[in-house]
Design brief:
One of its GO terms (molecular function) is lyase activity. With about 300 residues, this protein is of the alpha/beta class. The protein contains twelve helices and eight strands.
Length: about 300
């Protein structure tokens, strides 16, 4: 008897693979409207600032997708899992991933986004695109909506807090301000009663409880330049406030909304926020990204398998 076959559509934001793809990528983000020369230069400069233009997100995503496939097949040897990528703003697009599953003869699938927290504007958008293509193709697919309180995810993040606190040397942990961050979204999600802000706070509270820290706060980062208000305060403003109130000279940032090293982590935190911190005389550290951490892969494996059991 042959094994049951399940396709797993692993979705993420996507990134260009080289500098010459940045304009096409940015145009797609802007829904077909090319960026101005100034906007294009700003984004290109940011990529060039990260190890001379190395594009880590694509490679990290490839590794995460392969690691999840390996973990699923190890955890559930009675099922044959194959993972497919579906990217929001780069090839292979979400629709391409669904199409490839159908071509490969997959009849049952699960979709999961490499983002633990649900928002109608982020994860919800990924799911809608995949659902629409699956319906058109006759593919049965269930979705993981969020996994922000999965025990293995919390354990992986808590370990990173504990380990990174050691970088402050003899400084008491009470003298280190912990700032949890995630990608900002337009403020209008608040009127929609979107669960995103509260899910992020739930994760933050759970990690704080698990690690025994009390001096923490939440900050946003990487807001888009759209002319409409985005959720704040931004991490740069948070650092300014911490400095002006002279409460802390040591700050540990834990970007719980991001699961791998990419532009928002390697530039917005490691370059931009670090520059601000140095100017303010703050010792800033960041927790390492999850990437292919076995605990994170275990959490993803669990939530994907839970959707397999639903008919």
């Amino acid at each position: 008897m042959s094994k049951q076959r399940i396709g797993v559509l692993v979705m993420s934001y996507g990134t260009p693979e080289s500098l010459d793809q940045v304009e096409a990528y940015y145009t797609h983000i802007r829904r077909g409207h090319p960026p101005t020369p100034e906007q294009l230069k700003d984004l290109t400069d940011r990529y060039e600032a990260i190890v001379g233009g190395f594009f880590p997100l694509r490679e990290n995503t490839n590794k995460q997708v392969q690691a999840l496939e390996d973990r699923l097949n190890a955890d559930h040897p009675d099922i044959s899992f194959t993972c497919y990528q579906g990217l929001k703003h780069a090839v292979p697009y979400i629709e391409d991933g669904v199409e490839q599953m159908v071509k490969d003869g997959i009849e049952q699938a699960v979709g999961v986004v490499l983002a633990p927290h649900y928002s109608t504007m982020s994860v919800g958008g990924y799911i809608k695109r995949a659902q629409d293509k699956a319906a058109e193709s006759g593919l049965q697919i269930n979705f993981v909506k969020s996994y922000h309180l999965h025990p293995q995810l919390l354990e992986a993040l808590s370990q990173r807090i504990t380990d990174t606190l050691t970088r402050f040397g003899d400084t008491s942990r009470d003298e280190v301000r912990i700032v949890f961050t995630a990608h900002s979204l337009p403020e209008k999600i608040l009127e929609m009663k979107d669960p995103y802000p509260e899910q992020l706070l739930e994760t933050s509270r759970a990690i704080a409880a698990q690690t025994g820290i009390s001096n923490w706060q939440f900050g946003w980062q990487s807001a888009g330049q759209t002319g409409t208000p985005w959720l704040g305060p931004d991490i740069l403003d948070v650092l300014q406030t911490i400095s002006s109130e002279k409460q802390f000279k040591h700050v540990l940032v834990c970007p719980i909304g991001f699961v791998s090293d990419h532009l928002e982590v390697l530039y917005d935190l490691d370059i931009e926020a670090q520059k601000t911190a140095r100017e303010l005389g703050i010792h800033l550290e960041r927790t390492p990204s999850l990437n292919t951490d076995p605990l994170y892969m275990g959490a993803l494996s669990d939530v994907v398998y839970a959707q397999c059991e639903r008919k």
